[in-house]
Amino acid sequence: MSRVLVTGAASGLGAALVARFVAEGHQVLSTDLAEDSPDGGTTYLKLDVRSPDDWDAAVAWCEQNWGGLDILVNNAGIATGGRIDVETLDEWDRVVDINLMGVVRGCRAFVPLFKQQRSGQIVNTASAAGLVHPPMMSSYNTVKAGVVALSETLSHELHPYGVSVSVACPSFFRTNLADSIRGADSAMGATARQLIEKSPRTADDIAAAVLDGIKKKRFLIIPDRPAALAWRTKRFARPLYDRQMRKIAARARQRAEGKDG
Ligand SMILES: NC(=O)c1ccc[n+]([C@@H]2O[C@H](COP(=O)([O-])OP(=O)(O)OC[C@H]3O[C@@H](n4cnc5c(N)ncnc54)[C@H](O)[C@@H]3O)[C@@H](O)[C@H]2O)c1
């Protein structure tokens, strides 16, 4: 039985992961933005990933109540995107603060404990966008690529301490993620909402595959076929990948300019 902390656990992938961890008999601390647990279910702590104080409190909670932690799942995140000349710098700041620095803060908070334990597993939710970079999504692609880079760095750095690192890179799946879109580029926001809400995949589909990767301590967890295919195409058929990206850019440009009117 493992002791697991999940951020962004009130919705979507976080909630689906918690349900699966609990079903398998693990101890879970769910965390999210709200003061209280939305469903009153699992043990809950408010943890805004932007707050170093909240992170310190989470470490203290794990030490006091569990005497340590086995798996830290840095999952909380928001959706952003848009054309480089339309999306605002405030949006960049917001997504860097949550999606990238939120993960950095989580790792910094728990690594001293993991080193002391000489055990632990860090699981970061990035995205397929951290591996392949479609046009009109520069802020999201950039922070998710940052999460992939951070994860790989730590996987090597923490190996001597018996600490493993995994990074999950799913393609679009159905959650409440689109509700976090507040961008100035509303045409691109509408496209992202559609991709999330029309995806055939559920959060539970993704959670099942991510959990399997966690158990196998796989570094790169690519939990669905579209993400796996895109990553393979980029690595082994680069001209085809570039052509696909250019096609997406041309279509997105038409759509955006149609909407901008
Ligand atoms: N849904 C997709 O298509 C998709 C694809 C690839 C990657 N992801 C990633 O999966 C992760 C989970 O997203 P989801 O799709 O389940 O979305 P979601 O909106 O359903 O859940 C995200 C959760 O994170 C929480 N959150 C947001 N800001 C926070 C903060 N500052 N501190 C703590 N919690 C915060 C929200 O309250 C929410 O409960 C994100 O990192 C997202 O980028 C999602």
TrEMBL record:
Coiled coil: none annotated. Keywords: NADP, Oxidoreductase. GO terms for molecular function: oxidoreductase activity. The keyword NADP applies. The keyword Oxidoreductase applies. Gene3D superfamilies: NAD(P)-binding Rossmann-like Domain. Belongs to the short-chain dehydrogenases/reductases (SDR) family. PANTHER family: DEHYDROGENASE_REDUCTASE SDR FAMILY PROTEIN 7-LIKE, RETINOL DEHYDROGENASE-RELATED. This is SDR family NAD(P)-dependent oxidoreductase. It comes from Kribbella soli.
